[in-house]
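Practice problem 4.
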């Protein structure tokens, strides 16, 4: 069978490339990672008018073929390597018609690679609405490339674009590259690369580290030295010449309507959105709605998924003989599945809302406003979305860090997100604060317990910034950390884009992180269900006799039996084993069991404590636990421990997925556990 024709979409960020991809592929998409990086690899199948089925590849947005961040290096490594598995047969360059000159710079670079190319000028409806007109034929003639107008969001011009894609399109002969200047260099280095044009060879030389092995790189260094060639210097000079030429030429591609210059709608909105005061208030209001949506809208499907899967597990278990295997199916497998799928609504809602904010153009303004503050801590403006999202759930928040192009800034953001007080901590905070703070009000309306809660959130955030600052001091700045951001015009968001983003991110989480979470859940179940020797049988015999004799107290006795079995399980033994290490914090072996068990999910802590202390749920739960050897110092120490400790295997799984390194996960776990231990110990010592 012949291989499918590969068509690549290339364009600047915010050019509408993703909207076009969604229009062409719908939900017929595959999402994964490019090898070695956590950049989304999106592809889908499309059928051309001649019924030819092709693979459409959505390459990451890039401003040029010269940048060094992960997203743009992916584009370079594919387009400059004809041996790549995803090297395209045809490139569709998507250009933002409202900012043509900037987009044509990248287009000129791509066109000169000697690959068949079509240019699709997007957002022509917005250009025409302003009274201007784009001279498509002049653009096509200048670059010697078929050019068509589209509106990806309104699904206009798509048919004409696909018609162009069916034709045999020869590579363009247009060249802005002054090859005579590098004639000797190109001749000497030609044998090292598979090139189609002199310009592609020039770009390959400047990206040799990604394309050549050690031997080839060494040989190229000698060739560069012989020709007195400095790659970075020459690339900057070439870019400068290209930009100058494009800027001069692009003015002739517009037919502008004579009109009195007036402020656009975007300018009028930005007067408030980017204002130092009003902009901050709008930002807080928007992200409050975002935050509440994740809590409120996700709670119903989360409860439905959790209860539905758990009930299904019990139903399936009832069909099996009463044995450990039945419990394993219902409490191990199905509960583990619930632990994976329960996060999907939060992930989908967060990324759908992020897609909407990005489509409107507001997300770029948020990044612009917060960049000045965050860059002091080794991050940039795009870090604000993961950090704020971390207050809802670390898992989608860490995945949202993919929008940060610079690897170093993305790493720092991912590293500190778990210190944001996520929703899973909320039950633990509420439970423990009730031991510490009285149910009183200051001035009749300010809750003392509420102030404690706010303090915990602020504590985690402040320590996160301190950790980021320390990491920033020690990590070598080996990448260009400059923050280049376009502030696009405001547009109506695309519901289709939002739905696609939600579905794709949900798939990524379930397929990649879900495996780790499910395995860890099963391991925790095994540790809690089994114990050494015949202790469990003896406990069951004892309580079976007691239940038979005292049927009225059967529920209470069953709870006590569960508590005693948990104490004698491998998980219970682990709790007793770590007791000497946690005693300085004011914790006993029972709290030790809860700490280990809550690694599955922080909120499990309260239920585990309830089981261990044989206390039934409900309003009496807190009173009972408070009465059973739970001192003020211990409660406060435990509270501080949960502010910092990385007690969430789902977060660990996602960090591994996004960084590709167990070493980083281990460092993160050890560091946060160490901070939690020291802070908890200091709290207990001071309050005793």
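Answer key:
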């Amino acid at each position: 069978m012949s291989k499918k024709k590969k068509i690549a979409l290339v364009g600047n960020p915010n050019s509408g490339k993703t909207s076009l991809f969604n229009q062409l592929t719908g939900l017929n998409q595959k999402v994964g990672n490019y090898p070695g990086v956590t950049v989304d690899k999106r592809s889908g199948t499309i059928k051309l008018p001649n019924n030819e089925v092709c693979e459409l590849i959505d390459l990451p947005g890039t401003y040029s073929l010269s940048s060094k961040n992960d997203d743009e290096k992916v584009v370079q490594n594919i387009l400059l390597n004809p041996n790549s598995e995803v090297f395209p047969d045809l490139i569709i360059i998507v250009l933002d018609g409202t900012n043509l000159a900037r987009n044509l710079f990248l287009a000129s670079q791509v066109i000169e690679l000697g690959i068949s190319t079509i240019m699709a000028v997007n957002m022509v409806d917005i250009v025409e609405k302003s009274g201007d007109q784009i001279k498509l034929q002049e653009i096509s003639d200048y670059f010697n490339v078929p050019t068509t107008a589209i509106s990806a969001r309104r699904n206009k011009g798509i048919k004409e674009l696909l018609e162009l894609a069916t034709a045999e399109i020869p590579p363009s002969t247009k060249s802005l590259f002054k090859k005579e200047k590098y004639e000797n260099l190109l001749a000497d280095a030609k044998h090292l690369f598979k090139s189609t044009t002199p310009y592609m060879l020039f770009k390959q030389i400047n990206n040799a580290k990604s394309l050549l092995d050690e031997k080839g790189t060494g040989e190229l260094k000698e060739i560069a030295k012989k020709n007195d060639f400095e790659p970075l210097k020459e690339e900057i000079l070439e870019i400068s010449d290209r930009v100058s030429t494009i800027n001069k030429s692009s003015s002739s591609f517009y037919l502008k309507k004579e009109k009195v210059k007036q402020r656009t709608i975007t300018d009028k909105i930005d007067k408030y959105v980017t204002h130092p005061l009003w902009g901050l208030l709008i930002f807080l209001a928007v992200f409050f709605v975002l935050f509440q949506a994740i809590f409120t809208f996700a709670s119903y499907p989360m409860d439905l998924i959790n209860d539905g899967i758990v009930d299904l597990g019990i139903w399936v278990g009832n069909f099996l003989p009463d044995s450990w295997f039945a419990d394993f199916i219902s409490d191990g497998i199905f509960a583990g599945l619930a632990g994976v799928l329960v996060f999907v609504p939060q992930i989908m809602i967060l990324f759908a809302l992020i897609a909407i904010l990005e489509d409107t153009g507001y997300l770029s303004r948020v990044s612009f406003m917060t960049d000045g503050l965050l860059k002091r801590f080794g991050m940039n403006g795009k870090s604000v979305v993961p950090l704020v999202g971390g207050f809802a759930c670390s898992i989608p928040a860490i995945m949202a860090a993919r929008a940060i192009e610079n690897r170093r800034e993305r790493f720092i953001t991912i590293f500190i997100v778990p210190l944001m007080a996520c929703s899973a901590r909320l039950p633990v905070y509420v439970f423990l604060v009730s031991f510490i703070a009285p149910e009183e009000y200051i001035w009749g309306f300010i809750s003392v317990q509420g102030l404690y809660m706010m303090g915990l959130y602020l504590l985690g955030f402040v320590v996160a910034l301190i950790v980021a600052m320390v990491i920033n001091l020690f990590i070598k700045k080996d990448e260009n950390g400059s923050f280049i951001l376009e502030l696009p015009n405001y547009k109506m968001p695309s519901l289709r884009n939002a739905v696609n983003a939600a579905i794709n991110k949900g798939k990524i989480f379930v397929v990649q992180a879900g495996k780790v979470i499910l395995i860890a859940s099963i391991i925790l179940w095994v540790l809690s269900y089994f114990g050494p020797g015949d202790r469990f049988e003896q406990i069951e015999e004892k309580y079976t006799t007691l239940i038979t004799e005292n049927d009225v107290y059967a529920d209470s006795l069953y709870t006590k039996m569960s508590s005693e079995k948990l104490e004698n399980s491998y998980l219970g033994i682990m709790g007793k084993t770590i007791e000497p290490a946690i005693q300085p914090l004011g914790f006993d072996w029972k709290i030790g069991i809860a700490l280990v068990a809550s690694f599955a999910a922080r909120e499990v802590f309260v239920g585990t404590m309830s089981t261990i202390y044989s206390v039934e749920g409900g309003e009496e739960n807190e009173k009972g636990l408070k009465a059973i050897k739970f001192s003020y110092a211990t409660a406060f120490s435990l509270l501080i421990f949960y502010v910092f400790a990385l007690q969430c295997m789902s977060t660990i799984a996602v960090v591994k997925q996004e960084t590709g390194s167990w070493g980083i996960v281990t460092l993160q776990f050890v560091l946060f556990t160490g901070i939690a231990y020291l802070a908890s110990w200091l709290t207990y010592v001071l309050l005793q």
